[in-house]
Automatic annotation (TrEMBL):
<dbReference type="InterPro" id="IPR036388">
    <property type="entry name" value="WH-like_DNA-bd_sf"/>
</dbReference>
<dbReference type="InterPro" id="IPR036390">
    <property type="entry name" value="WH_DNA-bd_sf"/>
</dbReference>
<protein>
    <submittedName>
        <fullName>LysR family transcriptional regulator</fullName>
    </submittedName>
</protein>
<dbReference type="InterPro" id="IPR051815">
    <property type="entry name" value="Molybdate_resp_trans_reg"/>
</dbReference>
Length: 125
C-alpha cells in the first residue's frame, strides 16, 4: 500500500519462507471468489503450479490448514478457505490497515517534511 511517499508491506515469515504477504492475501481472496485454485490462478494471471505451490506453502507454515481442496471435478470439487484461513486473512487485512495508519503518525510527518519530491542529480565530480 502506498501513502504519499510511504510504502508499507507486511510479510510474515515461517523460517525463510513468506507465510503471508500482500500477494498471498490476494491469492486467498481470489480462491474465495473463484472456489478453485485453477480459476484463481487464471484470474491472477499465474500458472496453476505456482499458485498450488503458494497454497501448499501457506498450509505448511500455519498451525492449521488455510485452504482445503476437494478433487473430483463434480459440484463438490474445488478449493475453499478454511475457517482458520478466513480468520487469518481477516487478521492480515487488519494488520495492513494498522500499517497504513503509519502514514498519519507524527514520526512519518517529521520525516516527510525533510524529503525531497525527487532525487537531486548525481554530483558530476
Amino acid at each position: 500500500m502506498r501513502i504519499g511517499p510511504l510504502k508499507v508491506k507486511a510479510q510474515l515469515y515461517c523460517g525463510e519462507e513468506i507465510a503471508m504477504g500482500p500477494g498471498k492475501a490476494d491469492l486467498l481472496d481470489a480462491i474465495r471468489a473463484a472456489g478453485s485454485i485453477s480459476r484463481a490462478a487464471r484470474a491472477m494471471g499465474m500458472s496453476y503450479r505456482r499458485t498450488w505451490m503458494l497454497v501448499d506453502g501457506m498450509n505448511r507454515c500455519w498451525a492449521e490448514r488455510v485452504v482445503e481442496t476437494t478433487a473430483g471435478g463434480g459440484k463438490r470439487s474445488g478449493a475453499r478457505l478454511t475457517a482458520f484461513g478466513e480468520r487469518l486473512l481477516a487478521l492480515y487485512r487488519a494488520l495492513e490497515a494498522d500499517l497504513a495508519r503509519a502514514g498519519e503518525s507524527d514520526a512519518f510527518a517529521a520525516l516527510a517534511a525533510h524529503l525531497r519530491k525527487t532525487p537531486q542529480a548525481p554530483d558530476a565530480r
